Structures are given as C-alpha cells and as structure tokens.
C-alpha cells in the first residue's frame, strides 16, 4: 500500500470550510493554559464517519479525475519539500506553512485498490504513521 499514490497540494475548490477544526494556537509547543483544550474544542463537531463528512467534495468522488495529480510513494512529507523562506515562521523551520500560507496547509492523497470477493466479510486496517493532524480517511 506504500506505492502508487496520487498527491495534490492545496484544498479541493468545493471543500469550503467542511474540514475546519478548531485547534490550540501552537501545536509545536505545549502551552500550559491549552493542555487538554483540543478535546474540548472538538466536542460537538460532527463525527466524520457517521455523517460521511466531505462525501460531497469533488476530490473524494470515485469518478474524480486525478490524472494531473503528482504520483508518489509513501512515506511522503510535503512540508519538507517546500522551499525555505526567510520571511516564514521559524516555528515551521522557515517553511511557508501556517496562517500566512494557507495554500500550503492542506494536502490530499488518493489511492484505489481492489479486494477479492472472498475478502468481503473480512476486516482490514489501514495504518497511517506520521500524519501530522486532522486526517480524515
């Protein structure tokens, strides 16, 4: 499953703010007044699976044409690939990320695969190691 993925840097044009999650102000450092706050901020948000959150977004449709997306293998970290920018936030390693660079804050990955019919009643797990945050699969 590490091979044959497609990647797009940037959000789907029709995603709007469907996937916006409130967060603590600094995820790179623990701020005492925000310890435990992430759970409180997300309480009351819709369950992504139960509500099929984003099911109407173009990028998740089986018929979506992603042929112009970059082909790559995992593991992959698009932030590492970004150029250094002396004006960028030092907390992001001088990479153009964060509120001043929203065009670089969301990435989409796609991969299709087939399962044999004899596996239809089996349970499978996909494990994504190293996802930074707010991942919806």
Task: Walk me through what this model shows.
The protein is low in regular secondary structure and 137 residues long. It has one domain. It is built from two helices and three strands, in the order βαβαβ. A three-stranded antiparallel sheet has the order 2-1-3, with no helix packed on it. The longest helix has 6 residues. The model has no long low-confidence stretch (mean pLDDT 83).
The secondary structure category is: little secondary structure
**Strand percentage, roughly?**
5-15%
Q: What's the gyration radius in Å?
A: 17 Å
List the uncertain runs: none
Main sheet properties: 3 strands, antiparallel
Quote the average pLDDT: 83
Shape: globular
Helical residue percent? under 10%
Number of strands: 3
Q: What is the string of SSEs from the N terminus onward?
A: EHEHE
Compute the separation of the termini in Å: 14 Å
How many alpha or pi helices? Answer: 2
Name the strands of the widest sheet in spatial order.
2-1-3
* Structural domain tally: 1
């Amino acid at each position: 499953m590490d091979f044959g993925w497609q990647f797009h840097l940037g959000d789907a044009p029709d995603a709007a703010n469907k996937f916006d999650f409130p967060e603590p102000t600094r995820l790179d450092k623990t701020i005492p007044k925000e310890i435990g706050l992430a759970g409180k901020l997300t309480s009351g948000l819709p369950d992504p699976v139960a509500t099929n959150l984003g099911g109407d977004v173009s990028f998740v449709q089986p018929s979506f044409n992603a042929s112009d997306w970059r082909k790559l293998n995992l593991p992959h970290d698009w932030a590492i690939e970004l150029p250094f920018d002396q004006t960028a936030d030092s907390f992001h390693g001088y990479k153009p990320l964060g509120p001043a660079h929203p065009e670089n804050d969301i990435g989409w990955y796609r991969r299709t695969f087939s399962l044999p019919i004899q596996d239809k009643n089996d349970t499978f797990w996909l494990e994504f190691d190293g996802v930074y945050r707010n991942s919806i699969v």
